[in-house]
Prior knowledge:
By secondary structure, the protein is mostly helical. It has helices spanning 2-32, 39-70. The radius of gyration is 16 Å and the shape is elongated.
Amino acid sequence: MADKEEIKTLEELEEKGRILREYKEKFRQMCQGNKMIKGSTVLKLYDKIEEIQREYEHLDNKLTLMEYNFI
């Protein structure tokens, strides 16, 4: 049972990591572009990046706890 939960958590962690990389790349492209960007757009994207980072850290901590409990 723990193996299935660990696998599911790892898959979620990988997905959050992928989403986080996509948002960071989008943010980077927006900042490097020579076009005008509304401040609210930048702030929304930044907030989303922070949210995904918090979810990623939570999943990473959960996975670490599972590994310690397995030992």
